[in-house]
Amino acid sequence: MATKPPVYKNYIAGKWVACKSGKTFANVNPADTRDVIGHFQDSGPEEVNAAVRAAKEAYKSWRLVPAPKRGELVMELGLWLKRNKERLAKDATREMGKILTETRGDVQEGIDCALYWGGEGRRMFGETTPSELPNKWAMTMRQPLGVCGLITPWNFPMAIPCWKLMPALLCGNTVVIKPASLTPLSVWNLVKGAQEVGFPPGVVNLVTGGGRGVGTPLCEHPDVALVSFTGSTEVGRQINLACAKDFKRVGLEMGGKNAVIVMDDANLDLALDGVLWGAFGTTGQRCTATSRCLVQRGVYEKFLSALAKRARALRVGDGLDERTEMGPAVDEGQLKTDLAYIAIAKKEGARLICGGKRLTGPKYDHGFFLEPTIFADVTPRMRLFKEEVFGPVLAVVPFDTLEQAIALQNDCLYGLSGSIYTKDVNKAFTAMRDVHTGLFYVNAPTIGAENHLPFGGVKQTGNGHREGGKEALDLFSEWKAVYVDFSDSLQRAQIDTEKIVKLEGKKR
Ligand code: NAD
Question: Mean pLDDT, to the nearest integer, of 56-69?
Answer without folding.
Answer: 98
